[in-house]
Write a structure and sequence with these properties.
Elements (H helix, E strand, L loop, with lengths): L1 H12 E3 L6 E3 L3 H6 L1 H20 L8 H31 L4 E3 L4 E3 L1 H27 L5 H19 L3 H19 L6 H32 L4 H9 L5 H19 L7 H8 L2 H27 L8 H24 L5 H23 L5 H28 L16 H4 L1 H15 L5 H15 L3 H26 L15 H20 L6
Antiparallel strand pairs: 1-2, 3-4
């Protein structure tokens, strides 16, 4: 039996190319070349973890502090270099024609490469902000860098996935890294509780997602996204199974992006996680999940020859989801006294704005414009969130982030540059010109209007007006109220975090003034 099984291996590993006796390997160098950014991130994460493991505790007690400081510097440098290399490879892949790899399970095109670059940008800024933050918390360990690199690699594979199996594997690998990042400060009870809640609810959402994929496979008999679309276009899919599977998929991915009513994990996880990890998860995880939701639903809905009302059902479902998410997130954010929780509920509101773009993309005539609007929205949102959460960590002391609105009283007097940067970020969050946040919302609302979703655009505008209160509340505390207490933070000890904050604020102004109409 063993000999018989062994004799079948060549047929399983090799595929005939048409000539007798000539075989072609199923996996070639071109396949690995397509995912080079992923390989660089995985290699960097593994390397920094191994360096940390083999060097920890090897020095004498009297030299341990100096050795640990040098080790942390090496790990930080390697982590940043790995992100830069991955970003350069992502930029080069944007110039290449569309390609598939690993038997069509991976698809690399300009859209996925652009999102990959955005994910890598968020990873780079998170690693830079973590240099000072982890030192203050005495948590400079290689596993943080490893988790960030592994999560980024999983996100890139997530947006490049071209079949249901790859989608599920990538999202589960990403989720495991996100759970660990949430509870990274394991000596703090709140961090562990937040990570546990995130894990439990995330497991339920994975069940919905897997069940949805199973029903879609049962309805179409295919796992490749293109084959699923062809089955729908040819009216070969079972309508009831397909619509049920798509609904469950929306629920599973809705959890990942924090859409109402699948948002309950998000405020606790954001509050519990380290500020730099919160910033990373708030932009990269959401970007990857929104893009996958966009491409998957657009592919299934925009099939003109189909008699199955996929587009109509998805448009109705996502429209209600988007409006509810916008109103809920902004209204609950009004009642928060913690800046971190306010930003968490604000993130829920911004998920609603992105879902408006997804709804607009379901219209075949405006799908490209709406996709470009969603992608453009993700860029300033990434800069805003990273700057805001990095600043929370920058101002923290005694092992705690500065979270309440009262903690920011008089910030313009003690830290005028930081206050100005935060002002720019908050103005951009609210969608006020001339920042990039204004143009991001404008493109989303314009795409909704062009698609005939006027009421949805109005819901977004109402949500933006509501958000002015809690954003300006923080501005009032910074500029119009006396300083509560002297800040103990040393600017010279927070150069990396300061660089992230200032760079993000400047980028928001530059994008808003000079590049208001970026497209794919």
């Amino acid at each position: 039996m063993i000999n018989a099984a062994t004799s079948l291996l060549p047929e399983m590993v090799l595929a005939q190319n048409g000539n007798t006796g000539v075989a072609e390997a199923l996996v070639t160098w071109a396949d690995f070349r397509a995912i080079l950014p992923v390989l660089v991130l995985l290699a960097t994460g593994t390397l920094v973890l191994l360096i940390d493991c083999f060097n920890r505790g090897l020095s004498r007690p009297e030299a341990a502090g100096k050795r640990r400081s040098s080790l942390s510097a090496v790990i930080n440098l390697l982590g940043l270099l790995g992100a830069v290399m991955a970003g350069a490879l992502a930029v080069s892949s944007m110039q290449q024609p569309e390609m598939t790899a690993f038997q069509d399970s991976i698809r690399v095109d300009s859209f996925s490469s652009s999102v990959s670059l955005l994910i890598i940008l968020g990873t780079f800024f998170s690693l830079l902000g973590a240099i000072d933050y982890l030192k203050r918390f005495d948590a400079e360990h290689g596993e943080f860098h490893c988790l960030l690199h592994y999560a980024a690699a999983s996100m890139i594979l997530f947006v490049q996935s071209n079949n249901l199996i790859m989608l599920f594997l990538a999202v589960e690998t990403l989720s495991m890294a996100a759970y660990l990042l949430t509870s990274y400060l394991r000596d703090q009870r709140r961090s562990v509780e937040g990570g546990l809640k995130y894990f439990i609810l995330g497991s339920f959402s994975s069940g919905f997602l897997l069940f949805g994929f199973t029903l879609i496979f049962g309805a179409t008999g295919a796992i490749e996204l293109s084959a699923i679309a062809e089955s729908i276009a040819a009216n070969e899919a079972d309508p009831s199974l397909l619509l049920a599977g798509l609904a469950l998929t929306v629920i599973g991915l809705g959890f990942k992006v924090g859409a109402f009513p699948f948002h309950s994990w998000l405020p606790d996880a954001y509050e519990a996680a380290p500020a730099v990890a919160t910033g990373f998860m708030s932009v990269t995880v959401k970007s990857a999940a929104i893009v996958v939701l966009l491409r998957f639903l657009v592919l299934t809905a925009n099939q003109p020859g189909s008699e199955i009302p996929v587009g109509e059902v998805l448009t109705t479902l996502l429209s209600l989801l988007a409006a509810a998410t916008i109103l809920y997130g902004n209204l609950v954010a009004l009642m928060q006294n913690s800046v971190k929780r306010m930003l968490a509920y604000s993130a829920i509101g911004h998920t609603g704005y992105l879902l408006i773009g997804v709804v607009a993309a379901l219209d075949p005539d405006g799908s490209k414009t709406a996709e470009a609007a969603v992608l453009f929205y993700l860029l300033p949102y990434t800069l805003m969130s990273l700057a805001a959460f990095t600043l929370l960590g920058y101002l923290g002391d005694n092992g705690q982030d500065r979270e309440t609105f009262e903690d920011y009283r008089g910030l313009s007097s003690s830290r005028p540059v930081l206050a100005l940067c935060l002002l720019v970020v908050l103005v951009s969050f609210a969608g006020i010109p001339p920042t990039a946040g204004f143009w991001a919302k404008l493109h989303i609302f314009r795409a909704a209007l062009d698609g005939g979703h006027t009421w949805l655009a109005l819901a977004g505008i109402v949500g933006s007006v509501i958000s002015l209160y809690f954003y300006l509340r923080l501005v009032v505390n910074m500029y119009m109220r006396p300083e509560r207490e002297k800040l103990d933070t040393d600017p010279d000890a927070n150069l990396a975090s300061g660089l992230v904050i200032v760079t993000a604020a400047l980028a928001l102004i530059i994008l808003g003034i000079f590049f208001p109409d970026l497209s794919l």
